[in-house]
Design goal:
By secondary structure, this protein is an alpha+beta fold. It has eleven helices and 29 strands. β8 and β9 form a beta hairpin. The two termini are 35 Å apart.
């Protein structure tokens, strides 16, 4: 995590910058065009979509050149030379233009025209993705403050003066929010923002849908013919009166005509790849009676409502988006989204309708990749996101068996996915999961696993393996490779207790390894963190010993409502009892990478240097574990019952 670095320079006196000559402005524009385009791209709203945001950034910079007549310059820091004066003037014009563009419809008029091609910056890694999501969640003036300080090197007084001149009402607050954002995102924001992922001058080119373009060309030609005939037809027909308002007209939130419907191609041209990019699918999207009943069930009473933990059952604040309406195994199903929740309305062949509500805010490529449409005796049917290019099903308990391909219908509905096999001698049955691969059209061409843990949205399964010695800590990765699948095969039993708990993701973090006493082999310490949609988390610690041991995988303890084992709780220390092959009882403990020493007190009094600990124990009695961190801090450890 990085703090916002503000250059230590003497603050300049804020003045109204004089307008430079056109020649000076053009020279500054040519010299600083890439930096100005990057600045505009960062300030513009990500909701524009990747292509429109790139084009809008170039349009904002190109329109920053002075035209005839006086121009608004705002309040600018005093530059040190006429050349810098022109650059500072253009920079203020770009920030003002980018902040103003978000209030226009369309956001950036007169965009450069690109026909037949889609263009977008290349995708980055995990740190870049985390920073991009954090930037999308803040106001444009916060992104502007961050760009001016981190990329442009302005001091706090210069930044607030420029923002105030651009019309920002609370520039100090924007600067403070930008500082907090830099302190929470992983990696160095200065390095990340200068990478190609945030550069509108370094783009990939892909063709658009050629068949769709040809159809649109034919439709455009037909429309041109009709436009020629429209004036004559309009002259022959009097204006139709508006229908009179009636007291029985439905409220906007319950009016099927007010339902939002995303463009079918929006998912391929937006930086917000989540439920807001889902188009309306299914064979009953035009059934206004069914849609009206679904909306009434959400906005009124009389229908049984089920909610996942901590999900509000209140009516939507405005018209929700329609994601699906169709027939599933004889039942009518409608799927809606209000930007915070998913709502699934079901009219079964026999019985009363049911409305199920579940949190879905801050979803992403993986957590918005699928929704449970129905569960029957034949299995579970899913509706897949439009960006899913491949889908298969696999059993976590059989990692060596290849995923079985799912024959997904054109509207995204899967066939019934059967339940996992029953429990064997180990007492834990298999866990059926979906293996999905996203389309290359969103530059997120990767496979990932999701597991149905109840509710509407399956949970994303991740994996963080042990880092090699001397290698920085690793980021969570997808568990679709042989090692990740083998790891989750040992942790599959953890998923059962998480059902119906509102879980959005589960990450298996291997935080330490230990050589067992009496040459009994190597043990692996694992913390599996389950994140809920509301932000709380549960951590389960496992001790995995060699397969020949009687209990190769031992769940030691479970800690609810904790930030541990996640992004905001990266230090962990845990211990528990272990019996050696000789029958001798031991206390084992291990800590994450910043732990440099472990002390046990209570029934066992011992101390060890490093990240692992092993000591003979008399059995029984409470034990307190403390870890010493590399920075001198103390970490209180967890101990399993009996240890």
């Amino acid at each position: 995590m990085q703090q916002l670095r503000i250059p230590r320079k003497s603050p300049s006196a804020a003045i109204s910058a004089p307008r430079p000559s056109r020649d000076a402005a053009e020279a500054a524009l040519v010299e600083h065009y890439p930096e100005l385009a990057r600045l505009a791209h960062l300030v513009l709203p990500p909701s524009l979509g990747r292509q429109r945001r790139v084009l809008a950034a170039h349009a904002v910079v190109q329109r920053a050149l002075p035209r005839g007549g006086p121009a608004r310059t705002g309040v600018l820091p005093r530059p040190r030379s006429p050349r810098e004066e022109a650059h500072a003037w253009l920079r203020a014009r770009v920030v003002t233009g980018a902040l103003t563009a978000r209030r226009l419809r369309p956001p950036a008029p007169a965009l450069p025209r690109v026909t037949g091609l889609r263009l977008f910056p290349p995708a980055g890694g995990g740190d870049e993705l985390a920073l991009d999501r954090a930037l999308a969640a803040v106001a444009p003036e916060v992104r502007a403050a961050l760009a001016l300080t981190v990329l442009e090197g302005l001091g706090p007084e210069e930044t607030t003066a420029l923002l105030a001149g651009a019309g920002v009402t609370a520039p100090d607050r924007a600067l403070a929010t930008a500082a907090r954002l830099c302190a929470t995102v992983p990696g160095d924001p200065a390095v990340l923002l200068r990478g190609p992922e945030f550069d509108p001058c370094t783009v990939h080119l892909r063709p658009t849908d050629l068949l769709r373009r040809r159809r649109r060309s034919r439709v455009a030609a037909l429309a041109a013919v009709l436009l020629v005939a429209l004036p004559t037809a309009g002259a022959l027909r009097p204006d139709a009166p508006a229908p009179p308002a009636t007291a029985s007209a439905p409220a906007p939130a319950a009016d099927p005509a007010a339902l939002l419907r995303a463009d079918p191609e929006r998912w391929a041209d937006t930086s917000r790849v989540d439920f807001t990019a889902w188009p309306a699918r299914g064979d009953r999207t035009g059934d206004t009676a069914l849609l009206g009943r679904a909306l009434t069930a959400w906005t009124g009473e009389g229908v049984r409502k089920e909610t996942t933990p901590r999900t509000s059952a209140a009516p939507p604040a405005g018209p929700p988006a329609l994601l699906y309406a169709g027939e599933i195994d004889g039942a009518a199903v409608v799927l809606l989204h209000d930007d915070v929740r998913l709502a699934r309305y079901t009219e079964p062949p026999a019985g009363a309708p049911v409305l199920v509500l579940a949190r879905a805010d801050d979803a992403d490529v993986t957590t918005a990749a699928s929704v449970v449409l129905a569960r029957t005796g034949a299995g579970t049917r899913y509706l897949l996101a439009p960006w899913i290019a491949e889908a298969g099903v696999r059993d976590l308990a059989a990692p060596a068996v290849a995923a079985r391909e799912l024959a997904v219908a054109p509207d995204g509905v899967t066939p019934p996915v059967p339940a996992p096999p029953p429990a064997g001698r180990g007492g834990c049955g298999g866990t059926t999961v979906l293996q999905l691969r996203s389309s290359a059209r969103i530059v997120e061409d990767h496979a990932f696993l999701v597991a149905d843990l109840g509710g509407l949205g399956p949970a994303h399964l991740g994996w963080t393996p042990l880092p090699a010695p001397g290698v920085p800590s690793r980021q969570p990765r997808e568990a679709t490779g042989p090692l990740g699948l083998a790891a989750w095969a040992r942790s599959a039993c953890l998923l059962g207790p998480l059902r119906d708990a509102g879980v959005r993701s589960v990450n298996r973090w291997e935080f330490a390894e230990q050589q067992l006493p009496e040459r009994a082999g190597r043990a692996l310490w694992v913390c599996a963190r389950a994140e809920t949609w509301e932000g709380t988390g549960r951590a389960d610690v496992l001790l995995e010993t060699p397969a020949r041991a009687p209990e190769a995988v031992r769940p030691l303890l479970s800690v609810p409502d904790t930030a541990a084992c996640g992004r905001f709780g990266q230090d962990v220390l845990a211990g528990g009892p272990w019996t050696a092959p000789s029958g001798a009882p031991y206390l084992l403990a291990a800590g994450s990478r910043r732990v440099v020493g472990i002390t046990a007190d209570g029934a066992v009094r011992a101390r060890a240097r490093g990240r692992v600990f092993a000591a003979l124990t008399p059995g029984g009695g409470a034990i307190v574990l403390d870890g010493r961190l590399a920075d001198g801090g103390v970490l209180r450890g967890w101990t399993a019952a009996g240890g």
